[in-house]
Amino acid sequence: MNLGATTLLVRHLGPAAWASYGVALFLANFIDQYLGSKLLGAVITSSEPSLGLLRSGAYLMQLVGRLGLLIAIIAMLPASQLTALHSPLLMCAASGICGYVYVSRALPSALMERRLEYRLIGAGEVLDQVTFTVLAVALVLGGLGLPGVMLALAVQGVPTLLLWRHHTRPTPLLGHRGTALPAILGYAVPGSGVALCVLVEGVVPMVAFSFAHARLLGLAITSSSILSYPGVAVLVLQRISFPAFARAAHPERLNQALKEVSAAAAAILIGAEGLVGITCPWWLPWLFGARWHGAWPLTACYAACYVLLGQVNVLTGALYAAGRPLGALLTWAWMAAGWVFGAALWMLLGRPVWLVAVLLAARVLGLLAGRVQLKRAGLNARLDRPLIKSGLAAATTVGGAAAVAANETALIVVALTVLAVLEAVALWDARAPLRALLAGVLKRGGVELAH
Known about the structure:
Layout: H1 2-34, H2 41-45, H3 51-82, H4 88-104, H5 106-114, H6 118-141, H7 146-155, H8 158-167, H9 181-209, H10 214-227, H11 232-246, H12 251-278, H13 280-288, H14 296-321, H15 325-349, H16 352-376, H17 384-405, H18 409-429, H19 431-444
């Protein structure tokens, strides 16, 4: 449903206007994913969170939300004067309001993540999408255009906020500092550093493209958005890896869980993102129209980055669970540095190939840094096979897309064959965790898995 609505809205608004919505959505999602429950690690790891801990957590979240609103207001003037984006004032306002709603529901989300109540979390995420889709499509078809989309974004999280707060009541909304604040900050400070690195990565294409290339920014944002559908496992891993790994307190159990999740992530993402990335020169113009011709290099690059990012999220989740949030911060810092270097090359040379190459290299650097941090944390899970397969799949994705764009039939066949072999090996290596996952799903559905 969301893909269909996105296609409709993109066709109505065009790449340049869609870029403004994409920037606002990125900022709001950034606040939700990295400045929300991610900062409340002390609540997630606590055996029984005290009322003082919850109040301190609510206080921190309100502080983050109000700071986000202040930054959005301050950014309105520079965004309107320095960028080529459409409706920058609405963009800043929508992202600030949506972000404040998101952080206001971060504490209920952390409490549900601590209990692994992901059915209700998933229902809330679906409710967000339904609310946005219904409002945005109605307002755009009614003639409001981009302002209607921004209004839908600003209020899309309100129904889920009410639902989650009702489920976790009585949960404090405003809170106060209290004596438990240092425990909250023990995870929140390194988590804020990770958030800063992620923000740098997101700002890279905005800085590189938005000052004079709003259309190119729209291509980049839409490519990343579309690839998030087959790459939903990346978002799932980013969300649940830390709470799930936190239950495997013993190092041996954590090592085994880390190995199995890494193998499963490779099996899921290599096939999904690899195929979509290789064939993107075919489906991009068909899906969005002729104006999107030439977007395939960025789309293929983002697909390859998703394959690698899945493994990065597995590594950082394990580092959080092992009590090493600083290790996760260092992993993201290495990647952010690479993205900044790539943006500098783009702005100096104006050649997309440099940007693509550096972005992929930054992901590889993040994997290596994460592997080093795992060893320092005393985790020695053997992850060579899934990491190598993911790296080969990323390279095959970019090379295969170039072959498709050039209509090189022989190279296309080679790329698809290599990808199929990598996927087959990944599925074989992940057969045990995938079988356990399938058995759990069927059991919850009331069906016994026949042995």
